[in-house]
What we know:
The structure holds two protein chains of two kinds.
Chain A: H1 8-39, H2 43-46, H3 61-68, H4 70-102, H5 109-118, H6 126-135, H7 153-164, H8 168-176, H9 181-192, H10 194-210, H11 213-218, H12 228-244, H13 246-259, H14 264-300
Helix pairs in contact in A: 1-14, 3-14, 4-7, 4-10, 4-12, 7-14, 8-9, 10-14, 12-13, 12-14
Chain B: H1 2-11, H2 17-29, H3 31-49, E1 60-61, E2 72-73, H4 77-82, H5 86-118, H6 123-134, H7 141-152, H8 157-164, H9 181-205, H10 210-218, H11 223-234, H12 236-247, H13 256-261, H14 267-270, H15 273-283, H16 287-314
Antiparallel strand pairs in B: 1-2
Amino acid sequence: MMRTNFSTSDKIFDYVNYALLTLLMIVTLYPFLNTLAISFNDAKDSIRGGIYLWPREWSLDNYRYVLSEKSIYNATVISILRTVIGTVVTVFCSAMVAYAISRQDFVLRKFVTVAFILTMYINGGLIPNFLLIRDLNLLDSFWVYILPGIIGVFNLIIIRSFIDGLPESILESARIDGAGDYRTFFSIVLPLCVPVLATVALFSGVFQWNSWFDVFLYNSSTIELSTLQYELQKILQNSNASMTQKTAGDAFAGAMQNQGQVTPTAVRATMTIVASVPIIMVYPFLQKYFVKGMMVGGVKG
Amino acid sequence: MEKVEVAETVHYPKKSPNKFLQFLKQCGKQHALLVMTIPFLIWLFIFKYLPIWGWTIAFQNYRPSKSFAEQEWVGFQHFAFLFEDERFLRVLRNTLAMSGINLVLGFVTAIALALLLNEVRVVVFKRVVQTISYLPHFISWVVAAGIVQQTLSPDGIINELLLRFGLIKEDILFLGIGEYFWGIFGAAHVWKDVGWNTIVYLAAMTMIDPAQYEAAEIDGAGRIQRMWHITLPGIKSVIVVLLIMNIGYLLESGFEPQYLLGNGMNVDYSENIDIFVLKYGIAQGNFSLSIAAGMFKTVVSFILLFAANNIAKRLGEARLY
């Protein structure tokens, strides 16, 4: 249905539309590119201002400083570990429960479904959760990143609706061939669910990588368990504080200058890039999976 | 058939011994499914339901050193205190204001962007815009807050532009002025999520019958008229459902952006219920008051969400869990 002749007002509309959308792209991308430029610019030089999209004095010192910090190296390892372990655990466990509640004849089908759905509406809240974690002796441990998120209700819903959409005949023939529930799940359902499991894995991977609040709440006194996002959060807090109290900021800046030629602004920019690069790298390739997951979860419910 | 009976036996297993026996038999046959779910039911109970027991603390003068039986019970005293506390009322105001801003701004911008994207004829351009505009959604709020700080800082682009166009005489410390906080918060949210929020609308637009556009074109309707009279009514039902559902989240104004961008100078505008809970509970150790505030939020949200879900269902749309 390609239109053959465009009227003048049609053309004007198109120009305005493209201009607006281009503006949107600029507004979205500029802050990233600006941060990137600052992270590659000489820290002392950045103080003069006027860095936009391109570094004025190229320098890798900011990265050298940030990456040589032992705490940052350590935080990177923890970030990767929690992302990998947390994602594998949640994908596997969510798929297992989703398979069980997708079986129409399962005796606990209704009970399990309602028990999980209800937690979307009601939860203990921050402090009761904190007290629970404390009473379970999970404070200052790595497992506090994994255990509370073993199953996400949202994941459960989208995996189940995917299984519901699988052709019944496949599961039926497996049963006739004498495959038990374990066999059916592991060698038929799991392989067929790869597309939806990829989506769930991406969502929970991004979630794990981006988390900082649980680190702050449960593990802030154990530096070995810190993550990249939390290290960045601490830097933000420092620069926030330096705005409110001049002295605190100066002390912070002073401490850094002793380390080399870096400034709080440069470190903040560099850390921002380090903490977001993995996501920006994988995102373009995986965008369609994200959107698919959003559609299934949002529209089907 | 069998299915119906099974569903009943779950709820009334003791009604008839025969059915109960059948239930047990069924369990035996489905032992694999039970092994696959029961550990997670236990997990669910511990991590999601057990904390609700903590709400009892809101009705006590909680002392961590005492056992549950020894606690002093005070009824609704903490709740009464909250609604007389100037700070809590301010926090409540901030929560409602920020989620209100989010709601209105989020809807208007996402629908507008979806309408514009829908009019793009060059597929590649549309893809590029979508890819770029979805990106900030996947960035953590920590990173986003870092970027916002940089953009609004004295040597950031906003100050630079305002100075260059002569709109201001000297740099503005945006995050240091409380009155600006809600605006910054709303803008940051739009920057982060506007693209992502268009997905649902764009999907709804693909369901509109192309014949409608053709008919309108023959009748002489321009692009804007078609947008207004066909596209917008075509996605009306989606808009209504999302709007109702979002009203259910009225007390959930978020936590991360307020916490990460908040500071001593804008605290009167940035502090919301979640931050109040955190400060009273974790920082000051006043668990009772803090849990009372959190419980208030959860209960009101629960009622709102349930009502919203029911209204949406009555309107004949898919529920959005």
